[in-house]
Amino acid sequence: MGGGWGGAALAAAAMAGCATSRTASGTGGSGLQAKPVVVRTSESPQRSGSLYLDSALGFEIGRPSDSWQLDATGELTAEGLAIPVVLRHRESGAQMVLQVAPAVASPTEMAERLTSGLRNQPGFRATDPEPLAMREGAVGFTFEMGDQVRGRVAVLEGGQGQIFVMLATWPRTADPSVAAGVDQIFSSVRPIPRS
């Protein structure tokens, strides 16, 4: 399978980008039936965020602080790409999207396809994919959309037959703590057993 759907999906999500004037209310969604989820608050006194678990899709993801709003979307594309959650940073307008995709390619191959797809979009500049320290086998790259938006992509293995694709965008003028929050979110994503 070619990289067309992945590049198109990533570019579409990136085009939505970070809207500093957009409010982060509502859950969006496609009208599809939501997957069963369990949400539990972190017990660690050093972390004010929470952990979101989706046993149907087999992942967990954490919020680094209450400044990040997590919306469960339950979206599923015709290509089998699930977009179960979107996290938004209220003050900056930064946004992070988690996509759960069929493992039609390795994380490295998928990152290369996505990089190529973004580079073909007007106004996009992307670095070459490289291994990420967050987890063995994780691959990622950074990109810019014009002069206003920066972004980061990470791709890693999910459960059997899955990969996780994470895309984050934030305004170039955002405080460095926003990019640090993106890194925390990316590092929090883990596969869990599916029910």
In short:
This protein has 195 residues and is an alpha+beta fold.
Shape assignment: globular
Distance between the termini: 28 Å
Q: How many E strands?
A: 12
Low-confidence stretches: 1-48
CATH domain class name:
Alpha Beta
CATH T-level fold name: Protein Transport Mog1p, Chain A
Task: Please report the number of helical segments.
Answer: 3
Query: What's the CATH H-level superfamily name?
Result: Mog1/PsbP, alpha/beta/alpha sandwich
The SS-based structural class is alpha+beta
Helix content bin: 10-25%
Overall description:
This protein has three helices and twelve strands; from the N terminus they run αββββββαβββββαβ. With 195 residues, the chain is of the alpha+beta class. The chain has a single domain, classed as 3-Layer(aba) Sandwich (Protein Transport Mog1p, Chain A). Strands 4, 5, 6, 7, 8, 9, 10 and 11 form an eight-stranded antiparallel β-sheet that branches. Strands 1-2-3-12 form a four-stranded antiparallel β-sheet. Helix 1 packs across helix 2.
Topology:
Elements: H1 4-16, E1 38-41, E2 50-54, E3 59-62, E4 68-76, E5 82-89, E6 95-102, H2 107-119, E7 124-126, E8 130-131, E9 139-145, E10 149-157, E11 162-171, H3 176-188, E12 190-191
